[in-house]
Amino acid sequence: TPPIPVIEQPSREPMIALTHSLPLQPAQVIPAPVVIPVAIPKAPEVPKEAIKNALVLPPNAVKAGSTKFLNGIWRATIDVKDPITGKPPSLRYQINSNNTGTVRTMHGDNITCKSDVEVGLMQSGNLIIKSRGQAKCSDGSRYPLPEITCTQGLSGPAQCTGRYDGDTVVPVTLIKVSK
Length: 179
Description:
The protein is 6% helix and 35% strand.
């Protein structure tokens, strides 16, 4: 085999000397920020037969600002445990055509609690169900109620959350029980 020819490289110009006029510093390795995963609350389990009656915010009603689709009795299951019974509280809403209604719940030894509620649609399209303070109970006590906010996705039931005093937010499922 013949020898491989060597091609000479033209000489390069000498490098320009660096001056101290720029703020030059040696490179540093900066560790990536630690990402802490945030747990997103999971919606409470809903029986498959109940999903057909789950709350859906009709686009035409939302656009018109009408809450007539809410008229009737709704069961709200909240994904928290009642400190007395250890079970999730179940709230029963009776919504009237004038954007008002009542909410009832039962806990402990058949203690019933009741409060008036108001419903409304925000300009954002979110539905708000708000009680007028804590529910008054048959034993003279008060029962805390959440302010419920529902947002309609592109399909399926509305996604609802309940906000208690402070920043406690929990998933809520609203199911229509009767008209």
